[in-house]
Amino acid sequence: MFLAGLIWFLIFCVIAGFSTNFFMLVACRAAQGLGAAAYVPSVLSILAKVFAEGKDRNVALSYCGAAGPLGFILAFFLVRYSVFRDEKP
Question: Over the stretch 32-79, which tens digit does the pLDDT of each residue have?
Fold first, then answer.
């Protein structure tokens, strides 16, 4: 499930990057959500299998849990302060 969801997500990331209109972008983002729904839960089970119960597993799961909110914060700053602005004349 992990690999299938990841490939699905990546394919629609590329298609979304080349989208030509708003509706195509929204459809690709919805498809990305389906891919993410397939591989994100698998990440937790992979971490639980790879790391033995104890401190190492707790640290790995904590980093995984912190990655989501940190990604949103990083994306905000990248979009807010990037040079690629949509300036209307």
Answer: 999 989 888 888 888 888 888 889 889 988 888 888 888 889 888 887
Residue 58 amino acid letter: N
Residues written for the chain: 89
pLDDT at 51: 87
Stated pTM of the model: 0.68
Check residue 85 and give left, alpha or beta (phi > 0: left; psi -120 to 50: alpha): beta
Domain layout of the chain by residue ranges: 1-50, 52-82
Q: Burial letters for 55-65: b for 16+ Cβ neighbours within 10 Å, e otherwise? A: eeeeebeeeee
Residue with tokens 């949509």: 86
- Which one, of 37, 14, 15, lies nearest residue 24 by Cα? 15
